[in-house]
Design brief:
Blueprint lengths: L10 E2 L3 H6 L2 E6 L2 E7 L2 H8 L10
Parallel strand pairs: 1-3
Antiparallel strand pairs: 2-3
Length: 58
């Protein structure tokens, strides 16, 4: 008979609720529940390709 231990519960950062409120999809990573995606892959790809005007010199 194989003895299978129950996995330890995942830890959550203090920002866990904020990530959920921002629409994050959470996944286990190194024993923690971590955000891996917000709003879908296409929305993230588009956002990463938009210029960030906050960093432009005035």
């Amino acid at each position: 008979m194989v003895n299978r231990a129950e996995p330890a519960p995942l830890l959550r950062t203090p920002l866990y609720e904020a990530h959920l409120a921002a629409g994050a999809r959470m996944a286990p990573f190194g024993g923690w529940e971590m955000p891996i995606q917000y709003g879908g892959i296409l929305a993230e790809a588009r956002a990463a390709r938009q210029p960030d005007l906050r960093w432009r010199a005035k």
